Amino acid sequence: MTHAGEAETEADDAFELYDLKVEVVAGERPFVCSHHVGDCFYVRGENLEFPRGGAFSLYALAAILPLLPAKQRPLDRNDWMGTDAEIACPDPNCGARFRITRVGRRTLRHGDCTVVPLDPAPGPTGEDG
Ligand SMILES: [Zn+2]
Fold first, then answer.
1. Distance of CA 101 from the midpoint of ligand 1 (Å)
2. Near ion ligand 1, which residues have CB within 5 Å?
3. Is the whole-model pTM more than 0.70?
4. pLDDT higher than 80, residue 128
5. What mean pLDDT comes out for the span 85-93?
6. What angle do CA 107, 50, 44 make, to 5 degrees?
7. What spacing in Å lies between the alpha carbon of 86 and ligand 1's midpoint?
8. How many domains, the chain?
9. Cβ-proximal residues to 120 (8 Å cutoff; 6+ apart), any chain
10. 113 CA distance to ligand 1 centroid (A)?
11. Does 53 map to a domain?
12. Average pLDDT along the chain
């Protein structure tokens, strides 16, 4: 089924993800690790991109990584993942926080990301023929 009379095209395997910025921000206590306020990296599609010469704690990165694919995707309006954007450093004595911000949208194609085929579209009479 198409929306508003749109013709189906080869672009039907397109989907959107948000690009993300992950930035070190100050917490309520001093930093223990080597973080510096403003240190950051970007998530664009499947890639992490670091500014030239940028450094980022691997322990902090390990804590942040599981959240990034969810933050890239559209979420239910009521989903807590949409509102909560600051992650604490995994060192319990460190005050650093890492803020995840959506900075743009990118269109990707299913066929460019996987060799697993999409489910076939339902026929003109629906799925429960
Ligand atoms: Zn830390």
1. 19
2. 33, 89, 91, 94, 96
3. yes
4. no
5. 96
6. 10
7. 13
8. 1
9. none
10. 34
11. yes
12. 89
